[in-house]
Amino acid sequence: MDSTKDPSSALVLEFKEDPALTEMMRLRVSSLQKSGQKRQEGERLLLPHEAVYRLDFPNQELNFSRWYFSLSGYGRITITGICQLWTPDLTHLMTRQLLEPIGTFWRNAGDPEDSPLKWLEADMQEFGERIAELAKVRKVMYFLFAFKEGAEATNLSCSVEFTVDK
Questions:
Q1: By the 8 A CB rule, do 92 and 63 touch?
Q2: Segments making up each domain of the chain, as ranges
Q3: Best exposed site among 97, 98, 116, 147 by fewest CB in 10 Å?
Q4: What's the pLDDT score for residue 7?
């Protein structure tokens, strides 16, 4: 973080799982399977290792500063932002609504547990900046978290820091 900025203007927002939306998306998959129907053209269905998370923005004038994440054990987490103000009770999630780049961080199975997490720094920087842009026009944003290679939601802590424009 730039030390010339006022540290009191820092705002750290934690990603929070949204169990109701995750369950609603799982019900959509289950309903399609039971009825033998196919997903709509371009529809993005929730995979078993994914969950819906959200960020609530108390302020819309934000600039991205940095990520904070920790993962006990090993595994890979990918975070995909949803650019539309998505309401799964009214509309299906479409692939065109997913942001690029995605955020990815991981620790390999052979790495010591106290080794630092690895991540794609340029992608994570751009992803954080995109979130700050979208925060200017909304109060909440949704994300798909995918837990792979042994990662579990209970072992994850993930938040993002912004500076607040005065």
A1: no
A2: 8-164
A3: 116
A4: 54
